[in-house]
Amino acid sequence: MSVINFKFRNEVLRHNASLSYCYQCSTCSGGCPVALITKGKYNPRKIIEEAILGLQNKLVEDQEPNSWLCSTCQKCVELCPQKVELTEIFILIKNLCFESGKVPDAFIAQGQAVLENGVAIPYSKAILTRRDKLGLPTIKTAPVDEIKQILVETKFEKHIPKGLE
Amino acid sequence: MAYDLFLGCVIPARLPFLETSSRKVFEKLGIKLNDVDGFSCCPDPTGIELIDHKAWLALGARNLSLCNTNGGVLSFCSGCVETLKGVNYAINKDSRVKEEVNNVLKKVGKSYDGKVGVKHFAELLYEYIDKVKAYVDKPLDGFKVAVHYGCHYLRPSEVINWDDPFEPKTVDEIIRALGAESVDYEMKMECCGNPVEKSDKELSLLMIDQKLKAIQESGANCVVVVCPACYQQYEFNQRELNKQNESNYDFPIFYLSELVALAFGFKPEELGFNFHRIRPTKLFESIKFSP
């Protein structure tokens, strides 16, 4: 069942007022590579419609359509005649999914890596040897404590589960 | 002109040979790249930003706050460039965002004013295209290249503020300057599918399959990319697709810097071509190119 959640709608609008410019012409879906390949199962216009209506349960709980399938190619943003910032709005929806723990594992894994190492891919021993062979310099990455402090401050750390099930 | 070099994660820690060719090319062109200690993940505009925009802004601004070379910051990765340009854009567009970000940075003794310039390495190569042309020692005759621009090199155009978002020309012109041919193909402006891998591997494979099919039909004999995510998507998945679908993809995937380096006369051995999963040896033989 669809439930209108005004708080959710206002939250999206407050972060990105361009949502209200949408007149549902579907240019976004027409140019979307994921909509094409999934034969419309993924549908950016529909996501915007649900956001305008404040259907939080559809977007966050049910994920129908699933915002995580957006490839962030930004074609819809370029094509939109109303200058709706679709990718930004999808990011906001996904941020809200993250806060409710409704996020694909691979994103959590990347978040954990950055939290623990400061970088998404820490240098392995094998890579350091390879870098050496290729004549590449050794470069110090960010101090882990400093990155962690920032991620605690932005509440990122709070939403990252300690381990993956 | 000198630039601070922002390496990011994927190139230095997974595909370091792409860094080798890039460094060699800029050294040859007389452009100084400074290594900077202390960078974190950019962070990934197809990963971290999707789960936490605020954290993405803060870490991106922290990275930019470490740069102080006159040319600004240069990156070999389209994802890093999109993040760093995007952070600048957000900070300069809205003073509240700038204040929020700086309130976080203050806790670690840093601040960022939004003024560090950001450039993609292909952008810089294009600025130097005449010099690039003049340094060509081994013209890339016989290279029929399918240029894959990727998304984040171009869009959103308001943030990237560079080549045309749907009819780009910069990479095509650079490879033509090297003596190679740019082959047009049906799906040229489509996404490689790499970013959806984290949510749906099968979908991501369908996307790259579609592109490879179009490239095969075009008669191209190799692909050039300017982003390490696209590189992995093209290189790592051809065999997997061949197993699944009875296709016979066997395209060598080049980083733009590798083609420039080859044309400048660098040898495959010094560029680490042995780390390619699909070695270009067969291609070189078939077109009688001796590097």
What is shown here, in short?
The complex is a heterodimer of chains A (165) and B (291). With 165 residues, chain A is mainly α.
Can you describe this structure?
The complex is a heterodimer of chains A (165) and B (291). Chain A has helices spanning 6-15, 27-31, 33-37, 44-53, 56-62, 75-79, 86-99, 105-117, 125-133, 144-153, 156-159. Chain A is mainly α. Chain A has two domains: 6-99, Orthogonal Bundle (Fumarate Reductase Iron-sulfur Protein, Chain B, domain 2), CATH 1.10.1060; 105-159, no CATH class. The relative contact order of chain A is 0.12. Chain B has 291 residues and is of the alpha/beta class. Chain B has two domains: 2-121, Up-down Bundle (Glutathione S-transferase Yfyf (Class Pi), Chain A, domain 2); 137-286, Rossmann fold, CATH 3.40.50. In chain B, strands 2-1-3-4 form a four-stranded parallel beta sheet, with helices on both faces. Chain B has a four-stranded parallel beta sheet with strand order 6-5-7-8, sandwiched between helices. Chain B is globular, with a radius of gyration of 19 Å. The mean pLDDT of chain B is 97. At the A-B interface, helix 3, helix 6, helix 7, helix 8 and helix 9 of A face helix 1, helix 2, helix 3, helix 4 and helix 11 of B.
The CATH superfamily label of the largest domain in chain A reads Alpha-helical ferredoxin
**What is the CA-CA span between the terminal residues of chain B?**
30 Å
Helix/strand order of chain B: EHHEHHEHHEHHEHHEHEHEHHH
What would you say the CATH architecture of the largest domain in chain B is? 3-Layer(aba) Sandwich
CATH class of the largest domain in chain A: Mainly Alpha
**Structural class from helices and strands of chain A?**
mainly alpha
For the largest beta sheet of chain B, what order do the strands appear in spatially? 2-1-3-4
CATH class of the largest domain in chain B: Alpha Beta
Q: Indicate the low-confidence ranges of chain A by residue numbers.
A: none
Q: Total number of β-strand segments of chain B?
A: 8
Anisotropy-based shape of chain A: globular
Q: What is the gyration radius of chain B calculated from CA atoms?
A: 19 Å
Quote the average pLDDT of chain B: 97
